[in-house]
Amino acid sequence: METLSTQLEGWRQQRGGRCRLPEALWDAAGALARREGVSRVSLQLGLGYHRLRRITEAQSGVGPGGTPKVQFVELTRPPTSVATADGYRIVLEDGGGRSLRVELGGDREALERLVAQCWRGVA
Fold first, then answer.
1. pLDDT higher at 122 or 10
2. Helix/strand number for the chain, H first, E second
3. Spatial CA neighbour of 37 closest among 23, 50, 21, 56
4. Phi, psi dihedral angles at 97 (to 5 degrees)
5. Nearest-angstrom CA–CA distance, 66 and 53
6. pLDDT at residue 123, as a whole number
7. Burial, 123: exposed, middle or buried (Cβ in 10 Å; 0-12, 13-18, 19+)?
8. DSSP of 41-99
9. CA 3 centroid distance within chain
10. Under a CB-based contact definition with an 8 Å cutoff, are residues 114 and 102 in contact?
11. What phi and psi, each to the nearest 5 degrees, are found at residue 118?
């Protein structure tokens, strides 16, 4: 923390007045905040808590409240995903051994609505 504090102090002395902090310093502060805590780093370095928290969350891939941020979703058609006589069966796997099985009646629009709903939840 002392190294970053020295860098910030040097930058502040050179700039004088109100100037935007360079992204490289925000990134370094975010990395430090992931280890030391946002509140502590914010207070000790004189940085805005909310901006530092957003940077820390973006760096860690975690959204507000600790929920994982989804950056990419690949939908593939596993062998168990088939159109049956009475509807559709979809199996989604996360690659970590977990899966979700969805069975819908013979209504194609229902499948399209489900996919659209999931997509809006990800975006």
1. 10
2. 5, 3
3. 56
4. 95, -5
5. 12
6. 45
7. exposed
8. HHHHHT--HHHHHHHHHHHHTB-GGGPBPP--------TT-EEETTEEEEEEE-SSS-E
9. 28
10. yes
11. -65, -40
What does the pLDDT read at residue 30? Answer: 92
Both tokens of 15, joined, read 């700039």
Place of tokens 């995903």: 81
Q: For 70-105, give one letter per residue: b (16+ CB within 10 A) or e.
A: eeeeeeeeeeeeeeeeeebebeeeeeeeeeeeeebe
Q: Return the amino acid letter for 81.
A: S
User: Binning pLDDT at 50, 70 and 90, where does residue 41 land?
Assistant: very high
Residue linked to tokens 């002395």? 13
**Rounded percentage of the chain residues whose pLDDT exceeds 90:** 24
Length of the chain: 123
Kindly state the tokens that stand for 2: 């002392």
Euclidean distance between CA atoms 72 and 78, whole angstroms: 18
